[in-house]
C-alpha cells in the first residue's frame, strides 16, 4: 500500500485545495492500494468541523476518518499570516513522527503551496531516510500577488525556490506553470508532472423554484440571463477594478454581480476612484458558500467575467466553464489554455473589455449556446474529477 501524506490545505471546507482533497479522497476511497493522511486545521479561520462532514468517523479529538482517509488535526498559534507557515511546519512534524512510529516505508509527502521553503530541505532529508519522496504543488506565482508587501513577496520567491530545489517531483496544475518551473529553475533540473484541477458539468441540484435560489435572486433584484457574474477573492491581481470600470463604461443593460470576499478598505478606495456605488448595475453581494446555490447562480448568468492573472488553473474558471455559457476571460496563458476558442478574451487596455461586453450582449442565442457547449465538453473530457484523480493515482503509484 502506498501511503500519501498531504499538507497545506485547511481540511475539507470550501476552497481550491480543500475541494481538491474532498474529490480526490472520494474518488479513491475504495482504492486499497492508496492510503491518504490529510492535515486539517484544528483552530482559526477555515478549520473543518468534522461533525458536519457526511460519513466522517471520529476517532479521537485529534483524528477522524473521512472517505477512508486518515485526517489529523493540527493546532496552530494565532499569528496572522504567519499562522499558515507554522501550521504547515507542525503538520510536517506530525507526518515524520507518524511515519516513524508506524514504520511506514516509502511514504510520499505532498506539499500544497510553497510556504515553508526555508525548512523544506530539513524535512526532505528526513522523508528520504524513510525511503520516501517529497512532492510539491506550487499553486500559482505567489511572489507576484499585489496584496503582499515587498518583503513578503521576496519571502515567497525564496521559499518557492527552495521548495522546488528539494522536490522529487513538482506537480503543476497548469501547463504554463509547468513551463515556468522548468525554465526558472532549470539549474535544479526539476522533475515535473502536469495534473490540472478538476470540475464537473452536472447541473445544480436546486430546482428553478427552489426558495434559496429565488429569494437570493429577489434580494439582489436579478432576473435569469440578465446578469454577468464574477467569483473570486477581492484582491488587486484578480482585476476587479478593471472589470468594474469597464462594465460601467459599457452600454450593457444587464447587471454585474461580484461574488467575492469583502475587503472594506479596498472597496472604499475603489469606490472613491470609480464611484461604482452610483451605478445600479454594479452589485457586490459578498460570498456564497452554498455550492448548489452558487452553481445555480452561475447557470442562470448571461456571462462570466474572469480577471485572474496570477496562478495556475483557477478553480472558479473551471467551474464557470462547466456551468456558464459565455465566458469573458483576461488574456493570459493559463486562462487561454483552459478556455481556448470557447471563450472571449480581453486585455487591460482602456475600452477593450467594455467593447467586448457590448459585443457579448449582441451575440445571437445560438452563438452563446455553442460557446457554452464547447466549454462544457472541454471540462467533461479533460478536467472531470475522475480523470484528475486517476492521474494522481498513476503518479503516486509510479513514484
Could you explain how this protein is built, in words?
The chain is of the alpha/beta class. Helix content is 42%, strand content 18%. The protein has helices spanning 16-27, 83-101, 117-129, 150-165, 175-184, 211-219, 240-249, 264-274, 291-299, 315-323, 333-339, 352-361, 365-382, 385-398, and strands spanning 2-7, 34-41, 57-58, 63-66, 69-74, 108-112, 133-137, 169-172, 192-194, 227-232, 255-260, 282-286, 303-306, 326-330, 344-346. The strands form two sheets. Strands 3-4-5-2-1-6-7-8-9 form a nine-stranded mixed β-sheet, with helices on both faces. Strands 12-11-10-13-14-15 form a six-stranded parallel β-sheet, sandwiched between helices. Strand 6, helix 3 (117-129) and strand 7 (133-137) form a beta-alpha-beta unit. Helix 10 packs across helix 13. The longest helix has 19 residues, at 83-101. The protein is globular.
Name a few traits of the molecule.
6-stranded parallel β-sheet, alpha/beta, 399 residues, 42% helix
Helix/strand-derived category reads: alpha/beta
Q: What's the main sheet like?
A: 9 strands, mixed
Mean pLDDT: 93
Q: What's the assembly state of these chains?
A: single chain
What strand order characterises the main sheet?
3-4-5-2-1-6-7-8-9
| Overall 3D form | globular
End-to-end distance? 12 Å
Percent in strands: 15-25%
Tally of separate helices? 14
Give start-end ranges of low-pLDDT stretches: none
Order of helices and strands: EHEEEEHEHEHEHEHEHEHEHEHEHEHHH
Radius of gyration from the CA trace? 22 Å
Percent of residues in helices: 40-55%
Instruction: Give me the count of strands.
Output: 15
Amino acid at each position: 500500500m502506498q501511503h500519501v501524506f498531504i499538507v497545506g490545505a485547511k481540511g475539507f471546507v470550501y476552497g481550491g485545495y480543500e475541494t481538491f482533497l474532498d474529490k480526490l479522497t472520494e474518488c479513491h476511497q475504495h482504492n486499497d492500494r492508496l492510503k491518504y493522511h490529510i492535515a486539517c486545521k484544528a483552530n482559526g479561520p477555515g478549520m473543518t468541523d468534522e461533525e458536519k462532514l457526511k460519513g466522517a468517523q471520529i476517532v479521537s479529538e485529534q483524528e477522524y476518518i473521512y472517505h477512508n482517509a486518515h485526517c489529523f488535526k493540527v493546532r496552530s498559534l494565532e499569528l496572522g499570516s504567519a499562522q499558515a507557515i507554522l501550521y504547515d511546519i507542525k503538520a510536517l512534524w506530525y507526518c515524520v513522527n507518524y511515519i516513524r512510529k508506524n514504520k511506514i516505508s516509502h511514504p510520499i509527502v505532498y506539499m500544497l503551496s510553497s510556504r515553508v521553503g526555508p525548512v523544506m530541505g530539513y524535512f526532505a532529508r528526513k522523508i528520504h531516510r524513510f525511503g520516501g519522496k517529497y512532492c510539491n504543488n506550487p499553486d500559482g506565482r505567489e511572489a507576484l500577488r499585489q496584496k503582499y508587501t515587498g518583503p513578503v513577496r521576496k519571502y515567497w520567491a525564496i521559499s518557492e525556490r527552495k521548495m522546488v530545489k528539494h522536490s522529487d517531483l513538482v506537480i503543476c496544475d497548469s501547463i504554463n506553470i509547468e513551463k515556468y518551473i522548468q525554465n526558472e529553475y532549470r539549474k535544479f533540473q526539476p522533475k515535473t508532472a502536469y495534473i490540472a484541477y478538476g470540475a464537473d458539468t452536472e447541473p445544480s441540484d436546486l430546482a428553478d423554484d427552489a426558495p434559496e435560489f429565488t429569494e437570493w435572486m429577489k434580494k439582489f433584484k436579478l432576473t435569469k440571463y440578465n446578469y454577468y457574474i464574477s467569483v473570486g477573492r477581492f484582491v488587486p491581481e484578480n482585476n476587479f477594478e478593471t472589470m468594474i470600470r469597464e462594465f460601467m463604461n459599457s452600454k450593457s443593460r444587464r447587471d454585474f454581480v461580484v461574488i467575492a470576499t469583502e475587503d472594506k478598505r479596498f472597496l472604499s478606495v475603489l469606490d472613491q476612484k470609480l464611484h461604482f456605488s452610483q451605478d445600479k448595475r454594479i452589485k457586490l453581494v459578498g460570498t456564497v458558500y452554498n455550492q448548489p446555490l452558487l452553481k445555480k447562480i452561475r447557470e442562470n448568468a448571461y456571462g462570466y467575467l474572469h480577471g485572474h492573472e496570477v496562478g495556475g488553473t483557477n478553480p472558479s474558471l473551471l467551474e464557470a466553464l462547466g456551468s456558464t455559457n459565455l465566458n469573458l476571460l483576461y488574456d493570459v496563458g493559463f486562462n487561454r489554455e483552459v478556455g481556448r476558442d470557447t471563450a472571449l478574451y480581453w486585455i487591460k487596455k482602456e475600452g477593450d473589455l467594455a467593447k467586448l461586453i457590448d459585443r457579448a450582449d449582441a451575440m445571437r442565442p445560438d452563438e452563446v449556446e455553442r460557446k457554452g457547449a464547447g466549454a462544457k465538453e472541454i471540462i467533461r473530457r479533460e478536467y472531470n474529477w475522475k480523470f484528475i484523480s486517476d492521474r494522481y493515482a498513476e503518479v503516486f503509484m509510479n513514484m
